[in-house]
Here is the input.
Amino acid sequence: MFAALESVKQIWNYWAIVKQIMSKLFVETKTSQTEPVMTKPIVHSNPYYELLRSERVAEFNQRKARGEVKVDMLRGGDFRGLDLRELDASGLDLRDAYFRGADLRGIDFRTTQLEGASFCQAHISGCFFPREIHADEIRLSFDLGIRVRYQNN
Here is the structure.
């Protein structure tokens, strides 16, 4: 009887150790992952973003050409429903931006950072996208509003 009780205690102790190890592993694994954080559209408070919000694309392009626009000033921006045709998007950081219903026809995004951007129901005919974004990603974003992901292959 005494031996059986000792065995139960040992099993219980082992179980407690296993639980500690498992919980530690779970916490370390969970906190070490680098999953993207979901963001909400940002209404920036800078004059260049305001130019785009008021659909003054030509003026934005002129100021960008003069070097006034910093690369990351528009990241995560809310561009829903805007007419942004003729935008010079080269070199801009538009990651996590929202373009739902925006008119983006003809924009060359090949050198634009777009990871995490959403193009739900945007007008995208004639657009060039970075090679790292597969056509399926763009289609899913257009149809369902998912954020586009870059592919390494």
Notes: Residues 2-32 form the longest helix (31 residues).
